[in-house]
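Hi again,

Forgot to attach this to my earlier email, sorry! This is the prediction with pyridoxine-5'-phosphate bound. I've pasted everything inline since the attachment limit keeps bouncing my files.
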Amino acid sequence: MPVHCTWSPKIASLPLNRKLLGQRCDMLLHLLGLARAEVSVVFLDDAEMAAYNEKYRKQQGPTNVLSFPAVSHDDGFVVPENELGDVLISVDTARREAVGQNTSLHHRLTELIIHGMLHLAGYDHERSEAEAMRMWKEENLLLQKLQQPRSVAMPYLAINVDHVATIRQARGGSEPDPVLAASLCELAGADGIVVHLREDRRHIQDRDVLLLRQTVKTRLNLEMANVPEIVDIALEVMPDMITLVPEKRKELTTEGGLDVLANAKKVGKTIAKMRKAGIPVSLFIDPDAAQVQAALDVSATFVELHTGRYCEARTMEEQDREFRLIEQTAELAYESGLRVNAGHGLDYRNVHPIAALPFIEELSIGHAVISRAVLVGLENAVREMLAAVRTI
Ligand code: PXP
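Structure tokens for the complex follow:
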């Protein structure tokens, strides 16, 4: 272990993704060409940091990061060659700074780890302006290299075939069949199939879900309300994952995200049942930090960020504001240990910036693709969406 991370008990209650931060420390040593070096990184609270600041720098109050390069002593103590030293980081201060900078806690902690380690590697911004510039450039470069979180270069594309069933239900017959449509989507390259089995069965029917379970070769994601009847069906059908959404009888489509905060107990119960059955649960939420925290608290595996407000924005400013919110929330959720999907309202024109966000693993798209399919055929429509998503 080249980097030894230590976590003060005082910060035990904070939702830190320790694995991710540990990986970033190790990766950083590699990037600095110091893979054989030994470094200790200690994450503390403000009071503990203030004590070190007072003791070693004679300064009052906490600071964000302190570096102590390992040095040999006059009394003959010789530091082993590979020992670089210690970095202390106050998570409390990092948290305040993250809020001030409108960024996530893990992003700020990563910046502080880089800063501290560069000091150990011999960089010093206080020596001269040129040196400060050199260090700043290196910090930015390392930050870019460290934050490449998605294991695939591009997001997966899951196609929602609900609206094939909507057309079928308009005449109450058997055509077009969403099960056949799902196969065509997969043939065209879709990475997954999504269906929403609504309580009122307005489009997808129980028969569709049962058949899809047998025919889908990629991944079947069952969207559903958190109600006993549908929970039982999910446990019987065993989709590859479920996505819990709020559901209102009168809405045309899912209107807002799930209020996980207000429904934590019920949602937590369903997640526990699904976990026993081995079904991962995604929660469809608005891009909101409090909902991310609630999703973490109930032990969800995924969140799906609602992109509706971004897609419906009427001005560039509004769209940009909504986009930034999705970007920050995706980063926050990912760095807190959640896997992140996104969807709702995405089409051929607005999908690209969302697809380019590195923290988003999968996009769930329905209406735009099924609408285009009427004109160009389903396989073409899926291929065109894949091209739009994958030209990053
Ligand atoms: N994700 C969720 C949770 C949804 O409810 C829907 C709509 O069914 C979608 C994604 C897909 O939205 P759209 O049909 O607008 O692409």
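The pocket of pyridoxine-5'-phosphate is lined by residues 160, 162, 196, 223, 243, 245, 253-254, 284, 304, 343-346, 364-368 (CB under 6 Å). The mean pLDDT is 91.

That should be everything now.

G.
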